[in-house]
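I am writing to request your help with a piece of structural work I have in hand. I am sending you one protein, given as its amino acid sequence and as whole-number tokens for its backbone shapes. Kindly check, if you would, that the fold set down in the tokens agrees with what the sequence suggests. You will find the record immediately after this paragraph:
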Amino acid sequence: MTQSLTRSAMARFAVLALLVMALGGCSANWGWYVVSPATKSGWTNLQFLLGGLYYTIALSVTAILISITVGLLVALPGLSVNPFLKGFNRVYVEFIRAIPILVMILWVYYGLPQVADISIGVFWAGVIALALSDSAFQAEIFRAGIQSINRGQYEAAQSISLNYADTMRFVILPQAIRRILPALGNQLVYMLKMSSLVSVIGMQELTRRANELVVTEYRPLEIYTVLVLEYLVLILIVSAGVRWVERRMKADERG
């Protein structure tokens, strides 16, 4: 499945690249030599740009896993009848959602080391900032998904003597995840795009490498076009993967 998705995405990338180059070939303003695999310097530049792919994926996947975990932990108090727990949920969600991601990245990287007296690298600063920002949205997604489960499911779990933790683990969350999977997939796509903001603190992901190459080559049009195509192919792969998982989960549910 992974190989099929990769081949499909690469084919789309090749078609898009050829189309853009063909359109650009009609204008003297385009200089594709700077990213052309046919030349040594162009191939070197392409390898440099693609080298940021690992950091973009690692940053986004690590952040989304942490944000899902934190989001679930924040969502559960929001389902409680206890006003203190419910108030914690609302304060956390509203406070985190009010902070722009770029501001969060800058505060975590420059401010957190001073506040907590710790040393933090650009990768983990980016992960923490992205995970915190996304966790508020994940909390709302989980809360809505859990609340959408019919009350009879809770009563059925109680009838077989399941405690709260087992009810959530074995009965409620598996059903809720099936319903919120499209929203979780959208958040992963969103995370991939927002990871570009971590370039402001020096993270060597796709956008940072494109910016550095523009400074040395002075060809922003061509280099940023390749950057757009890189993100496009990456997100097409992720979207196709999420749809495949959705189909599998629906098939398992019917089975």
Summary: The two ends are 21 Å apart (CA to CA).
